[in-house]
Specification:
five-stranded mixed β-sheet; alpha+beta; 16% strand
């Protein structure tokens, strides 16, 4: 069921509830009013001075003062029988009076009671001057009919109001959801491969407006990602294709053949690395707590940073702080993180640049501080390095062999571990990478 249909039905139901509630109050008030009116008429009737005199005459005409009387009157005889003296109104047909037991007659002599006998009656009894007992009964049929009519009209009104509210809500919600329909159409177009589409603009400051802006921002990032990935892949593919065509020629010498083979191999390795980095990012985005376990993070750090001395024999690596630091993490992701950090230092700092790693662990956090004496990163560009395919130089030079995904991988791993990463000035005037993880 669509959301607009649910909202319309909900509006219809909510509008019907107060109508039925008010109708229930109206019906209850009407019942109480009718009952009070009938009871008052019964009490007023037995207090009329001429009532006993006219009852003894057993007149068949309406008794004056009984308002053409919806009140029937009978005499209760000592043998337990009832002699009807007057049926209600001008009834010329069969007399209408409830069947009463002696206990009911006696109870009616003390208060007005309700009796159900082929109808519902309010009954009151009183004793005459010669100890005879007279019983007055007023049928509730008319009041029940009136109450039922009120109930029927109330229910009908509630249904009409509910229907009109639902229809009005449908058209109103449909109007409000018009941008959503357009968004759905654009989403389908993008899913079919048309990445040029943009979400339609909605009124600024509304939820739909914010949603449209957020989706457009996401689509822009997606287009940029696809464009950057295509750009990165296009260059090695072009090189591989060009040198493959050279290898197919008959008149090339051995030097040309060797160079073509070497270039094809180099660009293939670059493509492999790009695909691996993209897969690493995808895996980092899907890390689950299921893979977490407690490990000594210092042993992993030492493993990768000691590799720097193998590549740069003149480089100094200093470890300080805790001798061990156990944290709850995904080991493979942490290995990828510190592998990327060490490779960045290897790629972007001089071969003799000093590196210091300090580990500080408290009861709640583990802080890892990595200082190098390289060129560092300008303050204005530090937030940019975490963007995918981001390079700090405008030429997007590939001399270092990177694709601008390394820091994105680092940031993704840190985020998935509920950690924090800060890029700061190093004590050696280079770059400081400060990582904080929950212990």
């Amino acid at each position: 069921m669509k959301l607009r249909t649910r909202l319309s039905l909900l509006t219809a139901v909510l509008s019907a509830i107060p109508t039925f509630a008010l109708g229930g109050v109206a019906v209850n008030n009407a019942q109480n009013t009718f009952s009070e009116s009938i009871d008052k008429a019964l009490i007023t009737s037995i207090r009329q001075p001429r009532l006993l005199k006219e009852l003894r005459g057993e007149m068949l005409e309406p008794i004056r003062g009984l308002a053409d009387s919806y009140i029937s009157i009978a005499r209760y005889d000592s043998d337990g029988s009832l002699t009807i003296l007057r049926s209600s109104g001008m009834n010329e047909g069969e007399d209408e009076f409830p069947e009463l037991t002696r206990s009911q007659v006696l109870e009616a002599g003390t208060k007005i009671i309700t009796v159900r006998s082929e109808g519902t009656f309010r009954v009151l009894a009183f004793q005459g001057r010669q100890n005879e007992i007279y019983v007055l009964a007023a049928s509730l049929e008319e009041s029940q009919r009136a109450t039922g009519e009120i109930l029927t009209r109330t229910a009908l009104a509630a249904l009409i109001i509910s229907l009109l509210s639902g229809i009005l809500a449908w058209f109103t919600v449909s109007r409000f959801f018009k941008p959503v329909n357009q968004m759905v159409d654009v989403a389908h177009a993008v899913a079919d491969g048309d990445f040029s589409q943009n979400m339609p603009g909605a009124k600024s400051g509304t939820e739909f407006g914010e949603l449209s802006m957020a989706i457009n921002k996401m689509m822009l990032a997606l287009r940029q990602f696809v464009s950057d990935a295509s750009h990165e892949l296009r260059t090695p593919l072009t090189v591989i294709r060009g040198y493959s065509e050279i290898l197919q020629k008959d008149n090339i010498d051995d030097a040309q053949r060797d160079r073509a083979a070497a270039r094809i191999e180099t660009e293939s390795i670059r493509m492999e690395k790009l695909v691996k980095d993209l897969l690493t990012l995808t895996r980092a985005d899907s890390i689950k707590t299921l893979y977490f376990k407690k490990i000594d993070i210092k042993s992993i750090i030492e493993e990768y940073f000691k590799d720097l001395t193998e590549n740069n024999s003149g480089r100094t690596i200093v470890f300080s702080g805790q001798s061990t630091a156990v944290i709850n993490c995904d080991e493979e992701s942490m290995r990828q993180l510190f592998s990327n950090i060490s490779q960045n230092i290897l790629r972007h700092t001089p071969a003799d640049a000093k590196v210091e790693i300090k580990i500080i662990q408290s009861a709640t956090n583990t802080e890892i501080v990595i200082d190098d004496s390289g060129p560092g990163i300008p303050l204005a560009l530090r937030s940019q390095v975490f963007e995918r395919f981001s390079r700090l130089d405008d030429s997007r030079s590939r001399d270092t062999g990177g694709f601008g995904l390394g820091m994105s991988i680092i940031k993704s791993v840190v985020d998935k571990h509920n950690g924090q990463i800060f890029l700061e000035d190093s004590v050696f005037n280079g770059l400081r990478v400060r990582l904080i993880f929950p212990s």
